[in-house]
What we know:
By secondary structure, the protein is mainly alpha-helical. It is built from 12 helices and 3 strands, in the order H-H-H-E-E-H-H-H-E-H-H-H-H-H-H. It has 2 domains: about 1-20 and about 185-285, no CATH class; about 40-165, no CATH class.
Amino acid sequence: MRAAVLLLLGLLTPVAARAGDPASPDPVRRGEYVFDAAGCLGCHTNEKGGGAPLAGGRPLKTPFGTFYSPNITPDPVHGIGRWTDADFARALRSGHGREGEPLFPAFPYTSYTRMSDRDVADLKAYLSSRPASPAANRPHDLSAPFGWRFLLPVWQTLYLEEGPLKDDPARPAEWNRGRYLVEALGHCGECHSPRGWMGGVDSARALAGNPQGPEGDKVPNLRPGPKGLADWSQGDVEAALEMGMLPDGDFVGGSMAEVVRNSTSKLTPADRRAIAVYLKSLPSVP
Length: 286
């Protein structure tokens, strides 16, 4: 019966077009796939405010104040048009901007630092091919001391571990691909993990849910425990990523619905399966 329901939904539910191709030799086309997997569109577009794609300005309300995403179009003044490949890689790898300034971790470089060199380079190629927007960046509205940029190097010393994510040779390729998508490109732990008072992810409970997620939403546990994905099959996880359908027939809402629309629905079936394999392999964490 469930298979019939999924088949019917697959026929009736529009699936997001996937223009990017992870196997393409073209850096721009491959970079588009990386862009979708990394979820860049949603965070860097103020859709409700009528902003241009990737022109920034989207507010992100947190316990530390409100962050506003920056313009990442190729505009030379307000965007990243003057950024070199090395500038861009440094932002993702070490959390520093073009002028060397430390970046606030609302930009999830603690996850993006784990991206492969090729994915970083191809993502930059794709962003450089997008239309430029002259939209000026809006300053963050943060409470003290969280808005003091000079304290960020201390935070980065505590919570940033630089470098690409290395495969576990004891695990199959599918598991390693799923881990890479979850921990690096998809940066799932940034929302689905609890944080300490300094805003750093509690690594001991990574992906175990966050009662105080972005916009004040409660973010669910992605581990296979009784409060998480214990009753979910691998197919359930894949269906949620593809069309937002939950095991009870309901659908995800809020920010996760946006993630499905802009990101996970555009992944290849093999990548969604890899994510499911990885998540189902994790130990339960209360």
